[in-house]
């Protein structure tokens, strides 16, 4: 008789954690942040709510970790060719091919694809909306997800300044807002389609300006 093999506790924990992530994201997309509960997440995931409370102190903590995991997986699937993996886990640097416009267009196109992805869109909208009225959640969303992503733009824009491809007196943080804000505005309002062509135009306008040149 073959010896009895003990269950792999770590594998079981990984499966449970993944089920909780998926349940939390599905429910916040279906019902919104406020109507999503620990009890509901536990029921959808097929685990006891004690399991959730053993790993996370609150619903916000569950959803934030689930969303960060989703964003990391999306980045791994959509990493642009030539981009370098950072040490932060799941984040990718903006490629530096020497062509600033082409590099920014590549990354903004990937952002468009991410925002249009149904798996990302619903939880992103729910957490964005709740972050506006819940200052603590909004601050955590910015600190853990938004700021690390924006820092990648700052790094690339500073490299462009050093190479003489961007005005030396330009503030990289303001410059990146010229790129990111239009995408976010169109996505939030859903007024017009969010497309690659739109992303390319944003880069052209931001780098080239709108006034005629001599």
From TrEMBL:
It comes from the Bacteria. Keywords: DNA-binding, Transcription, Transcription regulation. The keyword Repeat does not apply. GO terms for molecular function: DNA-binding transcription factor activity; transcription cis-regulatory region binding. PROSITE patterns: HTH_TETR_2. It holds the Pfam family TetR_C_11. Residues 37-56 bind DNA. The keyword Transcription regulation applies. Residues 14-74 form the HTH tetR-type domain. This is TetR/AcrR family transcriptional regulator. It comes from Streptomyces cavourensis.
